[in-house]
């Protein structure tokens, strides 16, 4: 069941990331910092902590969230820099069946 929650959340995060990339103007700049700085800032300002992560090629997707429901998606580069991909509200890690998966 835990695997289903993680897989569903990562799928949702990928969808959010892709939609954010498509909506981003070509000349827009991403907010990037060293990962520890980003995580410290999110913890202080929004009480967010890392909830899940997954590899996307050579990058690491990190999703942080707070108990209040705010969330942030970061892409971490091999050099350790983390860039803001998307953020929002109403984060819920709920179990969901994956089509075609054995339960």
Summary of the model, kept short:
The protein has 103 residues and is of the alpha+beta class. It is 33% helix and 31% strand. The protein is flat, with a radius of gyration of 14 Å.
Task: Please provide a written account of the structure.
The protein is an alpha+beta fold and 103 residues long. 33% of the residues lie in helices and 31% in strands. It contains two helices and five strands, in the order H-E-H-E-E-E-E. Strands 1-5-4-3-2 form a five-stranded antiparallel β-sheet. A hairpin with a 2-residue loop joins strand 2 and strand 3. The chain starts with a helix and ends in a 15-residue tail after the last strand.
- Mean pLDDT comes to 79
The number of E-state strands comes to 5
Helix content: 25-40%
DSSP summary: helix tally = 2
What is the beta-strand fraction?
A: 25-35%
Major beta sheet summary? 5 strands, antiparallel
Which radius of gyration do the C-alpha atoms yield? Answer: 14 Å
**Class derived from helix and strand content:** alpha+beta
- Distance linking N and C termini: 8 Å
Order of helices and strands: HEHEEEE
Poorly predicted spans? 3-7, 14-19
Shape: flat
The strands making up the biggest β-sheet line up spatially as: 1-5-4-3-2
What's the layout of helices and strands?
Blueprint: H1 2-23, E1 32-34, H2 35-46, E2 49-56, E3 59-65, E4 71-76, E5 81-88
Antiparallel strand pairs: 1-5, 2-3, 3-4, 4-5
